[in-house]
Amino acid sequence: MYSNKIVGPRRGRSFDSMNIGNEEKLLNNEMNKSTFTKIEECRTEKKNAPSDGRAAIVFSLKNEVGGLVKALKLFQENHVNLVHIESRKSRRRNSEFEIFVDCDSDHEQLNEIIQLLRKHVNVVDINPPDNSCLPEEDVENVPWFPKKISDLDKCANRVLMYGSDLYADHPGFKDNVYRRRRKHFADLAMNYRHGDPIPRIEFTEEELATWAVVYRELNKLYPTHACREYLKNLPLLAKHCECREDNIPQLEDVSRFLRERTGFTIRPVAGYLSPRDFLAGLAFRVFHCTQYVRHGSDPLYTPEPDTCHELLGHVPLLAEPSFAQFSQEIGLASLGASDESIQTLATCYFFTVEFGLCKQEGTLTWHIPDVLFFLNPPPPPSPLQHALSGNAVIKPFDPKVTCKQECIITTFQDVYFVSDSFEEAKVKMREFAKTIKRPFTVRYNPYTQSVDVLKDTPSINSVVEELRHDLDIVGDALSRLNKHLGV
Ligand SMILES: [Fe+2]
């Protein structure tokens, strides 16, 4: 889920103070005053230093005074630039905290810092770098990206938000039964690998009751709030996946249904992914989808995407060929793009897929009507009422303009963007994608479910050969048609 997923604004939260002990909070404050200032100095020093890219390291700390400061000082003393830091309570030992650091380093520095860290802390994981460079046989100085669908296994578990941990402002934060249930769903998603069947869920009575409320309320609003493509596909979801008021569809059935309609498949995910990882899935026509149900205390509001949002919001449109193509093109444009470009693409996704309006028969409707009950408090006023109230600005969707708009995830948007059709939005996005700086372009190969990186004459020639073959087929078809018509 992108939504997870989408704009990933929480990355900027760096230290998650809600998951860290008071003692460590004080340490964080100290570090904000001292270490981070020095980190900026390190950045300056490194301007002319060779850098191979970034690496992500996870290490655990005992809950003791000064442990975190000591560990971070090692980075400072070795001139390793820390780009991003997060903390969480260890899932392995209750008394420990885990620290995730995203650092900018070359291989030599990385090896040194890991050796030093191991003397002081327990290094839990050294992830495949989020932004590491591709191997030499590929394109240099380009952030790592998945080349084949199974590569999503390497990035689908890098959950930024929630997962099995909930923030204090989450409706289920104090509900231990709910939290255990969320852990169960998080474990299922974390253990999932490409090609596995998605585990079937026996939903509880409470989950079914929550789903039923959302289902009923949305069904009242569909006729006036949903776009025509949505309304066309929703009954198919009922027919093929048993999407009913008293039944939550199984993701495995939904995935099979979508594969037959548009080639999209579902991949379960534990929580918010970064925009880069979420968009990468779209490039392979994979939609990262949550399987848990929102907390039952307020069925008409959720601070995060849940399976109600995914199934009643996204899935009907993923069954629409033009929308599927639109989604994949955003995904393909994101592969190997800079962080800045990823943000522009994610913003466009946010204002089209999540909060997009379309004008059909002179009426404004939502691409995804579930936006009514996601992220925004329930009506009145509804987001559509707000959008039409004169308090929000409605602009035509234009990626060059849209990408600069601030995404607001806790209340209504200041601006909404309207398209006449997905086709129109797709053409605009395609043009916009050409402005993204990359030393190559990519082409999806549906036979191998991989992307071809077009970066030199041989790789481009191979595509030309395929196009020639396709044109031959078209020529042959036209010739036979002409004969049949006696032309
Ligand atoms: Fe969403």
Question: Which small-molecule species are bound to the chains here?
Answer: fe (ii) ion
Q: Compute the average pLDDT.
A: 78
Give the biggest sheet.
4 strands, antiparallel
Give the helix proportion (percent range).
40-55%
Q: How would you sum up the global shape?
A: globular
Number of helices, where a helix is a run of at least 4 consecutive DSSP H or I residues: 16
Uncertain runs are 2-51, 128-137, 372-380
Structure report:
This protein has 487 residues and is α/β, with parallel strands linked by helices. The protein has helices at residues 22-33, 35-45, 67-77, 107-120, 176-191, 205-225, 228-241, 251-262, 275-283, 307-318, 321-334, 339-354, 383-388, 399-402, 422-433, 457-485, and strands spanning 54-62, 81-89, 96-104, 122-127, 159-161, 265-268, 272-273, 286-289, 357-360, 363-366, 393-396, 415-419, 441-445, 450-454. The protein has a four-stranded antiparallel beta sheet. Strands 10-9-12-11 form a four-stranded mixed beta sheet. Strands 5-7 form a two-stranded antiparallel sheet. β2 and β3 form a beta hairpin. The longest helix has 29 residues, at 457-485. The protein starts with 21 loop residues before the first helix and ends with a helix. 43% of the residues are buried. It binds fe (ii) ion. The site of fe (ii) ion has 6 residues, from α10.
